[in-house]
Amino acid sequence: MRIDLHCHSTASDGTDTPAELVRNAAAAGLDVVALTDHDSTRGYAEATAALPQGLTLVTGAELSCRVDGVSMHMLAYLFDPEEPALLAERELVRDDRVPRAQGMIAKLNELGVPVTWEQVARIAGDGSVGRPHVATALVELGVVPSVGDAFTQDWLADGGRAFVEKHETDPFEAIRLVKAAGGVTVFAHPAAAKRGRTVPESTIAELAAAGLDGIEVDHMDHDEDTRVRLRGLAADLGLLVTGSSDYHGSRKTVALGAYTTHPDVYGEITRRATGAFPVPGTGGA
User: Fold this and answer.
1) Cα angle at 271 between 269 and 274, to 5 degrees?
2) Segment 250-268 mean pLDDT
3) Structure pTM?
C-alpha cells in the first residue's frame, strides 16, 4: 500500500481542487490519501464525491498552533468535523486569517512592494487565505523567484519584515480538542528549521505525555540525519512515525506520494480514531 497522509487542496492553500486532488492521487498510484487543509474541512464533500474506486480518503486538517512563541502545525485525522468545541476553535483561527493577510500586505506596501488585497484574494479563491497566497503574489510581482523564497527573514518567515502573527491554538489544547472529537494527532514536520524556529525535543516529550499520537518524520523539509534523529525520538516516546508529501499542487515542487506512511502505522491511526472512518472510493463523479 502507498499511503500519503498530508495533502492540501484549494480549500486552503493547494492548487488542486479537492476533486482534482483525489483523482491525481489515484493517478499517482496511491492507495490512501489524506485531505488535511489548514484549519478547514470544507473540501471533504467534494473529495468524497469524486473519490475514484481503489483509493481511500482519510479526512483531516492541519491545525495552526503555537507554543512558547514558536509556530507549529498539528495534523488531525478522522475527527468528527461537527464536534462543537473543535469546530469553534478552527473557525476562530480561520477568521483571523483575513486581517492577518491584510496586515502582511500593509507591511509589504511599506517596504515598497505593490501587492494588493484584491490580488491575494484572487489567488486564495475560496481557500483559507494564508502566507502561501501572499507568497504567490510576490512571485507574480517578480519580487521572489518561488514561493519558498518568500519564506525568509526578508519577507514572510516567522519574525520576518512582513510577518504578522495570527491566532494559533495551544498544541496541548489542540490535542485535547481533537481527542474529544475522536481524532488522532500527529506533529507535522517538527524539525523543518528552514521555516523558522522549531519546537525543542523536551516540548515534544511533553506533548507525547499529553496524548500526542505521532510525529511526521519522512518529509521534504527533513534531511536524512534529521529523520534518523526523529525516529529515535519517536521510539523513545512511543510515538507513531508517519511520512507524507505535504502536497500543495503547483505551489510546491513535491509530488504526491513522494513520502509515504507504513501500512502498519496507518492501521494504528484508524484503530485509534473514533470520530470518523476512512472513506473507500466507489468510482467518483
Assistant:
1) 95
2) 95
3) 0.87
